[in-house]
Amino acid sequence: MEGQQPLFDDLYRQKVRQARGMTPEQRVLEGLRHSEASLQAMADSVRHQFPSASEEEVQQILRTRIEKLRRLKGKL
Amino acid sequence: MNIYDVACAMAQTLERAGIEYSIVGALTSMYYGMSRNTMDADFVVELSAKKISDVAAELPAGFVLERQPRFEMFTSKTYYGIAVAGTNFRIDLFCLSDDPFDRSNFSRRRKVQLQGREVFFPSPESVVVQKLRWQRHKDLSDALDVLTIQGQSLDFAYIEHWSDQHGTRALLDKLRSEIPPEI
């Protein structure tokens, strides 16, 4: 990991430059777009793992996974 | 409906119920720092047991308030959860405590405008102080982002005062040293 520090630093600098080029409102809206894309990817992953699941079942599994993530991140 | 629409609807609900609030958490970290994922809208609210029934009465259709408050071990905060039907979003209403920093933080909140709607946010300095206090991985990442993006516009006397109070000054100094110098 230590050898990768310059890469991490460069990636962070890129993120900072991008964030500074945005208004506060644009940063929030960009985050919301990321969040919606993440949710979509998680739902697609459930559909791939459980191809015979109904959409209702997919959403239920998705809710369970999100709740686990919330617990992992310190909520609850 | 995205998480920001959910947060705005909740803010309007609190205003109708006459309850003072500040949005906190990821939305404010993004506003002052960098974009990141979230599925939660967190609020600090000045709320008594009686007032929670006023909130319940004002909630929009599809917003479901949990009957019992929860206690978050990590932050020692009492909060009420609200599920939003048809979405994976969640709202948490954290009760404003008597902690001196929590009171100071709340008194410094300000109105910001997003997508034509005005809501209360904490000051960027408060976001940094709170994140330093909690010190979870995501908190430190958020604190570094806010320090980096806001730069010298921050009131460092305020941040340093509360960091000294909380014993997090060394961590603050460490994060400041991690801001890439050439940016």
What this model shows, in words?
The complex is a heterodimer of chains A (76) and B (183). Chain A is mainly α and 76 residues long. Chain A has one domain (9-72). Chain A is built from 3 helices and no strands. Chain A has helices at residues 5-20, 24-49, 55-72. Chain B has 183 residues and is an alpha+beta fold. Chain B folds into 2 domains: 1-122, Beta Polymerase, domain 2 (2-Layer Sandwich); 123-183. Helices cover 46% and strands 22% of the residues of chain B. Chain B contains 8 helices and 8 strands; from the N terminus they run H-E-H-E-H-E-E-E-E-H-E-E-H-H-H-H. Chain B has helices at 3-16, 26-32, 49-58, 100-107, 124-134, 137-150, 156-166, 169-178; strands at 21-24, 40-45, 63-65, 70-72, 77-84, 90-95, 110-114, 117-121. In chain B, strands 1, 2, 3, 4, 5 and 6 form a 6-stranded mixed β-sheet that branches. In chain B, strands 7-8 form a two-stranded antiparallel ribbon. In chain B, a hairpin with a 4-residue loop joins strand 4 and strand 5. Chain B starts with a helix and ends in a 5-residue tail after the last helix. At the A-B interface, helix 1, helix 2 and helix 3 of A face helix 2, strand 7 and helix 6 of B.
SSE layout:
The complex is a heterodimer of chains A (76) and B (183).
Chain A: H1 5-20, H2 24-49, H3 55-72
Chain B: H1 3-16, E1 21-24, H2 26-32, E2 40-45, H3 49-58, E3 63-65, E4 70-72, E5 77-84, E6 90-95, H4 100-107, E7 110-114, E8 117-121, H5 124-134, H6 137-150, H7 156-166, H8 169-178
Parallel strand pairs in B: 2-6
Antiparallel strand pairs in B: 1-2, 3-5, 4-5, 5-6, 7-8
Helix pairs in contact in B: 2-6, 5-6, 5-7
